[in-house]
Structures are given as structure tokens and as C-alpha cells.
Amino acid sequence: MIDESKSARFLCAGLAILDVFLGGFALFAPGLTMRIFAPGRDTEDLPLLRRTGSIWFTFVLAQVWAAVNGTPRALRAVAVLRLQEVPADIIWRATGRGFGWFGKLGITSAPPFNLAAGLFLLRVAKRLECEGEYM
Q: 52: which residues sit within 8 A by CB, 6+ positions away?
């Protein structure tokens, strides 16, 4: 049987790694990031991209916390962060402009992925709370 708490911690570690890359590129190489995800956007959008990079780094902190200790509270925090991204990404996909094929792929796949990840982490947090498993 799959140990869901280990899977949840592994998921949080993977999300942290992803957000380190996304946040790092957005903060330190915004021009390159823009060319990869949205080649049709103007350079005037780079400050917004840098701001997004700093948000991704904030996510990293919560995800590392959840990956390390796996408490229901930590898992729930990451779940909330992921679930809040669902409507934001749907709106951005519907109203954004200039996406390249890679950007379209990312912004289209992000909402279902974040929804699944968030709901999974909430379920694991609730189960751990009910069973008293606080790692």
C-alpha cells in the first residue's frame, strides 16, 4: 500500500524544486523566462514577472516546511497555496496574451495539477489529523 504521508512530503519537495527553478528564472533571468513562456509579451511586463518570482520563492518556504516535517498544518498550508493558484491561472489563461506553445502548455496544465495536488494534500492532512500521525 502506498504511504500517502510520504507521497505528500515527496510532492511538497518536488513542488519546492519546481518553484525554485520558476522563481529563480523569473527573478534573475526575467528576459529569458519571458522569451520561453510568452515570447509575444513586451519587456514592460518584466517587473510583474519578477514579482511573480518572489511569490514562487515564498511558496518554496512552505513547501520545504511541509516536505521536512509533514505535519497536517504544513500540508494544509501548501494545499491552500496550490488551491489559490487554480482560479488565478484560469483567469490568466483566459485574459493573458503573448503565450508561446510552452507557456500555453504550462498555464493550461497548471490549474488541474494544482487542484489535484491541493485536494490530495488536504486529504492527507485530514487523515493524519484524525489518526494522530504527526511525524
A: 26
- What is the identity of the amino acid at 39? P
Q: How many CA atoms are closer than 13 Å to the CA of 87, on its beta-carbon side?
A: 2
Dmax over CA atoms of the chain, in Å, equals 52
DSSP the chain: ---HHHHHHHHHHHHHHHHHHHHHHHHH-HHHHHHHH-TTS-GGGHHHHHHHHHHHHHHHHHHHHHHHH--HHHHHHHHHHHHHHHHHHHHHHHH-----HHHHHHHHHHHHHHHHHHHHHHHHHHHHHHHT---
Radius of gyration of the chain (CA): 16
Which amino acid is residue 79, in one-letter code? Answer: A
pTM comes to 0.89
Tell me the pLDDT tens digit for each residue of 14-65.
Answer: 999 999 999 999 999 999 999 999 888 777 888 888 999 999 999 999 999 9
Burial code of 113-122, b = ≥16 C-beta within 10 A, e = fewer?
ebbebbebbb
Number of residues that make up the chain: 135
